[in-house]
Amino acid sequence: MRTRRVSLRRRQAWLASAFGVYSLLLVGQFARHGLFQGVDHSRKAESLRVKAFALAPDRGDLVDRRGQVLAISLQRESISYAGKERRMAPGLMAARLAPALGRDEAELRVQLARPKWTWLKRRITKGEADAVRKLKLGHEGIGIRPEALRSYPRGRLAASLLGWVGQDNQGLSGLEHAQDRLIRGPRQFARVESDRWGNPLFSSREAANLPATARGRRIVLTLDARLQHHAEAALARAVHLQKAQGGTVIIMEPHTGEVLALASYPDFDPNHGREAAPDITRVKALTDVFEPGSIMKPFTLAAAMETGRLKATDHFSCPAKLHIGTATIGDHDPPAAIRTLSVPEILKVSSNVGTTQIGWRMPSSVHAAQLERFGFGRRTTPEWRGESAGLVPPQPWSRLTQATVSYGQGIAVTAMQLATAMCMVANGGLQVAPRFVDRVEDEGGHLIQQLPPTTGKRVLAPDVVTELRRMLEGVTEEGGTGVASRVPGYRVAGKTGTADKVGPDGRSYGGEVIASFLGFVPAEAPRVVILASLDRPTMAHFASQTSAPLFREVAIATLRALGIPPSRP
Amino acid sequence: MTRPKPDLPLVFTCILLLVFGLAMVFSASAPTAVHWGKGIFYVLKNQGVYALIGLAGGFAAWKVGIRSDLSRIAALFHWLAFGVTAMTLFFGVRTLGATRWLSFMGVSLQPSEFLKPTMVLWLASRCLVPHDKPLEIGRTLLLVVGPLALIIIGQSDLGTGLCVAAGGFIAGVMAGMPLWIIGGTLAAGVAGVLAVFLAGGYRATRIQEWLLIGHAHPGPPTQAEQSLMAIGHGGLGGEGFGMGTQKFGHLAIAHTDFIFAIVAEEVGFIGGLLLILAFLYLVLRAFQLAQRTEDPFARAAMVGLAGGITGQALLNIGVAVALVPVTGVPLPFISQGGSSLVGTCISMGLCLGLAARVERRRKPRAPFATEEPA
Question: Closest partner residue to B231 among A14, A41, A46, by Cβ?
Answer without folding.
Answer: A41
